[in-house]
Structures are given as C-alpha cells and as structure tokens.
Design brief:
By secondary structure, this protein is an alpha+beta fold. It folds into four domains: 48 residues; 163 residues, Alpha-Beta Complex (Penicillin-binding protein 2a (Domain 2)), CATH 3.90.1310.10; 320 residues, DD-peptidase/beta-lactamase superfamily (Beta-lactamase), CATH 3.40.710; 55 residues, Trypsin Inhibitor V, Chain A (2-Layer Sandwich), CATH 3.30.10.20. 36% of the residues lie in helices and 22% in strands. Strands 2, 3, 4, 5, 8, 16 and 17 form a seven-stranded mixed sheet that branches. A five-stranded antiparallel sheet has the order 10-9-21-20-19, with helices on both faces. Helix 9 runs antiparallel to helix 18. It is elongated and about 140 Å long.
Length: 639
C-alpha cells in the first residue's frame, strides 16, 4: 500500500511539471507575438502613419539649425544715393564638442578674438554644439583666426549695417543693434518695413554631437527687406552740415540744428543736429548726441513767434501793416511785470514792430487779438501738438492751458516767451506763410519699395488745413522781407534773391532754480527764399553761442551761406537785374560739369586747377560779374 502510494505521488508530480511547462511556452509565445505586433505597429506608424513626423525627429537629432542675420532693406535719398545699406562680413562660431583640448583652444583663441582667456574657455567648455564666438567679426579677424587651423571653429557670412556717408543724417537715420534690429531714427520707426526674413544655417552632426562636415549643409536664403526712399537731398544735406558746422565753431555755440523744407509740399530736404553723430560707431557717443534735435528738442521761440501773431491780427482784420502802436520808449508795465525792448522805440507801425522786433508793441497787438483767438491761431499753425512726421521721438512742445492765460501770460506769449516749440513746428508754420496759407503735413519718407522694385507706399503732399488767406500770407511775406532788407535780419540778405525771415533771441529756462539763465540764450533765424515763389524754408538755431547772443548776428549769416548755395544747386534764377551784370554765386562743392553748365548760361569763360569739386573760386561769391569775364576755380577730390 505504501509503495503504491509513492508511485501515485511520482505520477502526480510529473503531471504538474508538464502543465507548468506548457503554460510557460504559451506565455512566451504570446509575449513574443505581442512584442512582434508592437514592433510591427511601431514600424507601421513610423513608416506609414506618422512618416513625416519621424523624419522630422530624425532630422532634429542629426541636424542643428541657427538663425543668421536678415538682409535688411536699404535707405536712399530722393536721388537714389545710398544712405544706409548692408555689407557682407564674416561671423565666427564654434562647436565645443569638436574641441579636444579646451584649455589649449582657449589660450590660442582669446587674443585674436579680443576676449579674456576666461571668456574663451567658457565658450570652449559649452555643452552646446553651436556657439557664437564673434558676430560680424570682419575679414581681418576671420583671417587671423582661420590661420590658426583649429578644430571646432567655423565661419559664415552675415550682413552688417553700414552708413556710407558716416555723420551725414546720423541722428535721422538712427542705427541697428547687432541683430539688425532698428534702435533709433528711421531704422527704428520703419523697422517692420526694413527688416527682412532671417536666414537659417543647418549643420549635420553624429550621435556625439560632432559636425560631420566642416561647412554648413544648407544656408536657407532669406527674404530681403523693403527699401526706403527719403525726401532728403544729400547734396543739400551736405551744404547744410558744412555751413552749420562752420557757423557753430565761429560763434562758439554749445550745439545747433538746421532744418530745410520745401514749403509747397512739406518735404524735408535736409535735417541736421550738431554735434554730429556717426551711426557706424554709435557706442562711442553719449545718448544726447543721438537725439534728432529738430523733432525732439523743444525751445522758446522768442521773437520768431511774432510772425504768427501778426498773421492772426491781419487775418482777423484787427489791424493792418500800417496800424500804429506806442512802444513807450522801451518799458511797459503789465500786471506786476515790466516788459522791455532791447532798444527804446516810440511809435511803430505793425510792420515796423516786426522789423525792429519790439516786445512792447507785440504785447499790445496780442491784447488786441485776445487770448482765445491767439491760442486758436497758434494751434492752427501746428504749435502745441505733434505734427505726425514719420520719425520717432517727436515732441509736441507746450502751449499753456488757456485757463492759465492772464494779462502777463498773454503779453509774454505774444513775443515768444512762456511757450515751447520744435524746429519742425516752426519751419512748417512758416511754410504756411510762404505757400499762401496752407498748413502742410511734413514728411521725410517718400516711398517704400519692395525687393522686386514695386512701390508699396508713396506719400503725396497733404494739406492739413487752410490757416490764413492768400492776401494775409502775401502781406506777412512782404513784412518779413522788410525784416531782412531794413530790420534785424540784414545779415541774411542774398545778392540777387529776395529773402524773408525773422530773427529770434530767447533766454534758456533754468530747470533747477526756475526762471531763466542770466547768460544763456538761443539765437535763431527762420526764413524762406525767394520771396516771390519760395522754394525753401530754413531754420538755423544756435544753442548758447558765446560770440553773440542775437539771432541777427549769429544764425542769420549761417542762413545766408546755406540758402545761397542751395538756391544755386536747385537752379533757381536770380530775381534782380544788375544793369546787364549778374552776381557771382557760391559754387563751392560743385563739379566741373556743373561749372561748365553754369558758365554756358552766364556767357563767362572758366579755367580749372585740379580735379574733383570746387574748393576756391575767383571772383568770390556775391561779386558782380558780366559776360566774357574769366573765372578761375580750384578743384579737389575730397571736400
């Protein structure tokens, strides 16, 4: 019985083992089948269902893409002369994973790169496979580093923003940062139009992150930005810059500005801020030197505001040019204040008030107009509000709230004190007088052109408002011509042309102590020419001149030297005959071809010394010449 039981036990044990074995086989088979199905499904997913996604993942693992700088649009003047463009230069990048000895690499690369050893070592030890070592390094640096023949360092061409005319229009154009993003000026204001689509550089790498090739496998082409065409004329800008700088140095002024506009259209032909600014080296300049003064700097206009006081009085028929006012021999008490004139006068007509720039008579004319009407006219002429010129940083100036105008405020505002304006406002307002009474929209960008040459946007002259009648405009023009012919603006006279304008001398407010500085002034002259058919309106303003504080003796001569050259450049014929003779213009900066064309028209003989552009002439500017005379010109290439 016992043996039988043992036999049965052995048989039972064998059956259990066999059963377990079978289940293991079944389970393993099932597991293999499931794994096979999973692999098969994944394969199907990668190769069929999500084929594109799989390729993208694989490409991301083996390729690295980095943005390069875009090709920015160019900026041109009205005659298609380049003002801002791009120049290809070398940028340097490294792949730290290809560097075998980071310390040795850093030791060799630091000095040529112009960085410290610590900085070079941090680049070499980076965990990335692409690190910029030097953007826009330039050809010389790239050649020096390439000669080291180091593993892990590579080069690629990128566009660098350059300004071929250096300081010309520096504050107007502005500049870009290293990523070609507009930071100041037109570069900032029109960044969206100028900026192109960035390029991409793609490199191939192995599993360890090392580049398979030493050069990029692909550089995606970018989309070039749009070009801008400005209203600026580079030749006129050159004249303005040259004469303004001369005048500033002669008068020992702290700073200065000049703005020249076409009064018929509102187009800005030249805009200058001194000291000048070179956007190619923008890091070398203080922030104040980057400011575009004609649109940013607000100042008290002084006596130049009397132009618009008279225009308001004439338009409202409160007075005419012969209306008389008692100037009280140079002193008049208004409220608790005493108004003074530089020179004591008795009775003056309204025209003479402007000719001799009497503050006392101006205050009396202001009282006749009344604060409400004067306030409204100043607003209509564009003061106290932004004009919307297509440049950043425009100031609106300041006109006090009408509720704060008492008798003293009305009197002082009448002669340009207690109000602040910008150069663009003052020039645009005077252009309203010059063009017959139309307040124009000022602008500096004429066209936006796409890379194919198609015009996207083109600005046309736009009338904002009719401010005064033609008759009023004509009367004010005649009075302003008298200011130059027989008043304070005598030094702005140009032989052969009628000039109309007004001098200004204003104290500079003291922001710390209140009131005004006792020894600091703004001297200005604003005018237009020729008087019968004005082609230019020009403001010259000097900040804190030391030689003289008066606009008539500081700014007016600079106005003359600019305007006479610009009128000749524009081909505007003289207005007066001189008994068969004519007046020798200032031909400085003209080419031999320009001189020959002029000589043919005048019937004179010319001879040249040297080549290039005129730097000296005989007879001199302003001298009387007649047909058949011999004129000699000295020329030089660099002017």
């Amino acid at each position: 019985m016992i043996k039988k039981r043992k036999k049965n036990q052995k048989k039972f044990s064998y059956n259990r083992h066999e059963t377990r074995t079978k289940w293991k086989i079944y389970f393993s088979t099932l597991l293999v089948v499931l794994l096979f199905l999973a692999v098969g499904y994944k394969s199907l997913e990668l190769q069929v269902i999500n084929r594109d996604k799989a390729f993208r993942v694989a490409e991301k693992q083996h390729n690295s893409s980095y943005n390069l700088l875009p090709i920015r649009g160019s900026v041109f003047d009205r005659n298609k002369r380049v003002l801002a463009t791009n120049q290809n230069t070398k940028s340097i990048y490294i792949n730290p994973k290809e560097i075998e000895d980071p310390k040795d690499f850093a030791q060799k690369i630091a000095k040529p790169l112009g960085v410290t050893y610590k900085k070079a070592l941090s680049l070499a030890l980076s965990k990335k496979s692409f690190v910029w070592a030097k953007r826009l390094a330039g050809e010389d640096m790239a050649e020096n580093i390439n000669s080291l023949e180091l593993e892990g360092i590579n080069f690629v061409e990128e566009p660098k923003r350059v300004y071929p005319n250096n300081q010309m229009l520096g504050q107007v154009l502005g500049f870009t940062n290293i990523d070609l993003k507009g930071i100041e000026g037109i570069e900032y204001f029109f960044d969206g139009a100028l900026a192109g689509k960035p390029r991409k550089i793609t490199t191939r790498r192995d599993a360890r992150g090392k580049n398979i090739l030493d050069i990029p496998v692909d550089i995606e082409q970018s989309t070039k930005g749009n070009d801008l065409v400005l209203t600026i004329d580079s030749q006129i800008q050159h004249i303005v810059d040259t004469e303004l700088e001369k005048g500033v140095k002669e008068m020992e002024a702290k700073s200065a500005m000049a703005l020249l506009m076409d009064p018929e259209t509102g187009e800005v032909l030249a805009m200058s801020s001194y000291p000048f600014f070179d956007p190619n080296n923008f890091r070398k300049y203080a922030e104040i030197n980057k400011r575009n003064l004609p649109v940013w700097y607000a100042f008290e206009p002084g006596s130049t505001l009397k132009i618009f006081l008279l225009a308001a009085a004439l338009e409202e028929k409160i007075a005419n040019e012969n209306s008389k006012y008692d100037c009280e021999n140079g002193r008049r008490k208004v409220g608790t204040k005493v108004i003074k004139d530089v020179h004591p006068y008795g009775v003056l007509t309204m025209a003479e008030t402007l000719h001799y720039s009497s503050n006392i008579c101006a205050s009396k004319i202001g009282e006749k107009i009344g604060k409400e009407y004067l306030h409204d006219y100043l607003k209509d002429f564009g003061f106290g509000d932004k004009l919307g010129i297509d440049l950043p940083g425009e100031s609106k100036g300041k006109i006090q709230n009408l509720g704060n105008w008492g008798p003293v405020e009305l009197a002082t505002i009448s002669f340009g004190q207690g109000i602040s304006v910008t150069a663009i406002q003052l020039v645009n307002a005077l252009s309203t007088i010059a063009n017959g009474g139309y307040h124009m929209q000022p602008y500096i960008v004429k066209k936006i052109v796409n890379p194919k040459g198609d015009i996207i946007t083109e600005k046309k002259p736009k009338v904002l408002k009719r401010v005064i009648s033609y008759d009023t405009s004509n009367t004010v023009r005649k009075i302003l011509k008298g200011v130059v012919d027989k008043g304070t603006g005598g030094m702005a006279q140009i032989s052969g042309y009628g000039v109309a304008g007004k001098t200004g001398t204003a104290q500079i407010p003291n922001p710390e102590k209140g009131g005004y500085y006792a020894d600091k002034y703004i001297a200005s002259f604003v005018g237009f020419a020729p008087t019968d058919k004005p082609k230019l309106t020009l403001l010259v303003l000097l900040n804190d001149p030391k030689k003289s504080i008066y606009g008539g003796s500081t700014a007016a001569p600079i106005f003359k030297s600019i305007a006479e050259k610009v009128l000749f450049y524009m081909g505007i014929p003289t207005q007066h005959e001189f008994e068969g003779n004519s007046i020798m213009p200032n031909l400085e900066g003209k080419s031999a071809r320009d001189i020959l064309r002029w000589a043919t028209e005048e019937g004179v003989e010319v001879s040249f010394k040297g080549s290039g552009y005129v730097v000296e002439q005989d007879p001199g500017p302003g001298e009387t010449i007649k047909r058949g005379i011999d004129c000699t010109f000295k020329l030089r290439q660099d002017i």
